[in-house]
Prior knowledge:
This is 4Fe-4S ferredoxin. GO terms for molecular function: 4 iron, 4 sulfur cluster binding; metal ion binding. By secondary structure, the chain is of the alpha+beta class. It is 32% helix and 11% strand.
Amino acid sequence: MKEMKENRRKFIKFSTLGILGAVLGTGVVISPYALSAEMRLRPPGAVSEKEFLALCIKCGQCLQVCPYHSIKLSDMVKGHGVGTPYIDARERGCYACTAVPCVLACPSGALDHKVEKPSDIKMGIAVLEFPNKCLATTNTIVPKGHSKRVQDFINKQNNVTQLELDMLNKLNEFEGKQCTICADMCPIPNPLSAITMIREGNGKKPEIYEGCIGCGVCEELCPVNESAIVIKPRLSFEDYYKKGLDHV
């Protein structure tokens, strides 16, 4: 709640300046190329980016109902779409809540109400971007203190939920074991449809399937300093793995 209020204050402070700058500047508007370059992970049910920016009224309702504190409001530092909700997967992914409360809370249609359950969510696609950093691939056990970053995030929240604490307790159980965190912590009802561990040399590696919804939990919980697995926002399995659109 504290972070949400702070983000909303920033929005009020800077939105007027942003409008004024657009009017008094050179008259340049955001091009489709800039929009693509600025693309970020949006909450479940987000319509196309252009429609999303037009429909979102920046009310913050989706933040307020998220039990995992996954959603943030963008500010001037984050580029276009000041005040719109997004998810920083490395900080906190989306845990694919059964009733998708963020969608239910959206009053404007920026989050499509046809998204009613986790399997309807299509946020992006997971990619093993840095296999050389993956603990499973290098056959390295999960180190002590690997969950500190996640614990620190939870400690910053004013209204920690039991769901967050349960998630942290489960994460802590991986310490000293072979890393399978990305596969075993996947929050969707049928995680094997999205990700599993396969044999790779002397170790293993995560393999992504069509059931991946791009929730970002694998990126958040990856225990290395720079996540080995990352989310490509708004891309589908077919886009990335079949069509090769890996630079969008």
